[in-house]
Specification:
- The complex is a heterodimer of chains A (106) and B (116).
- Chain A is mostly beta strands and 106 residues long.
- In chain A, strands 2, 4, 5, 6, 9, 10 and 11 form a seven-stranded mixed beta sheet that branches. In chain A, strands 1-3-8-7 form a four-stranded antiparallel beta sheet, with no helix packed on it.
- Chain A is globular and about 35 Å long.
- Chain B starts with a strand and ends with a strand.
- With 116 residues, chain B is mainly beta.
- In chain B, strand 7 and strand 8 form a beta hairpin.
- The chains are: A mainly beta (106), B mainly beta (116).
Chain lengths: 106, 116
């Protein structure tokens, strides 16, 4: 099983600031990595696939980068609606998720 | 517009069985790769099972032999039959499409609580 490790567990950020979330895989994924946003009581929402491609309707302030085993999700200027939990997910071999990073208001 | 609507969750005793449904609109279930993903209360996401458009099915080790994924093409509906349920199966169960590996469309989820 490919283990996905996200850091930090919690990120405290002020509105308008930049947020950088990390995701590490236990083995190489090439670019087979996705990012999701989940708000309380809601289903996850696809943000990024292929490590860096924004899904339909996702604002440009969300960007993904990385390949192999190290990946990053950057939110360039946090808006109030961006405070949520973010998950990375690999689809290189079966499907596994990271444990999530909670982005909270500082 | 794609919509996935799950139903069938509820409170079930340990060792019991339950069938979840996922009614789809805006897409054809039989033409898509469809998965179930679950989330235990306060926890992360776990892939549970997939059915490919060709009919092949696969399961996470944690549910292998107890859960069965299926579909009814005439109803455009995906199912998850769950047997011998335990406390560890308590979760919100989502159906989702994952044709390219990532999960692009999700339902709203249905809560399964296994407790005596």
């Amino acid at each position: 099983e490919i283990v996905m490790t996200q850091s930090p567990a919690t990120l405290s950020v002020s509105p308008g600031e930049r947020a950088t979330l990390s995701c590490r895989a236990s083995q190489s994924l090439s670019s087979n990595l996705a990012w999701y946003q989940q708000k309380p009581g809601q289903a996850p929402r696809l943000l990024i696939y292929g490590a860096s491609t924004r899904a339909t309707g996702i604002p440009v302030r969300f960007s993904g980068s990385g390949s192999g085993t190290e990946f990053t999700l950057t939110i360039s200027s946090l808006q109030s609606e961006d405070f949520a939990v973010y998950y990375c997910q690999q689809y290189n071999y079966w499907w596994t998720f990271g444990q999530g990073t909670k982005v909270e208001i500082k | 517009e794609v919509q996935l609507v799950e139903s069938g969750g509820g409170l079930i005793q340990p060792g019991g069985s339950l069938r979840l449904s996922c009614a789809a609109s805006g897409l054809t279930v039989s033409s898509n790769y469809m998965s179930w993903v679950r989330q235990a209360p306060g926890k992360g996401l776990e892939w549970v099972s997939i059915i490919y458009s060709g009919g092949h099915t696969y399961y996470a080790d944690s549910v292998e032999g107890r859960f069965t994924i299926s579909r009814d093409n005439s109803k455009n509906t995906l199912y998850l039959h769950m047997n011998n349920l335990g406390a560890e199966d308590t979760a919100v169960y989502y159906c989702a499409t994952n044709g390219e590996g990532y999960f692009d469309y999700w339902g709203q989820g249905t809560l399964v609580t296994v407790s005596s």
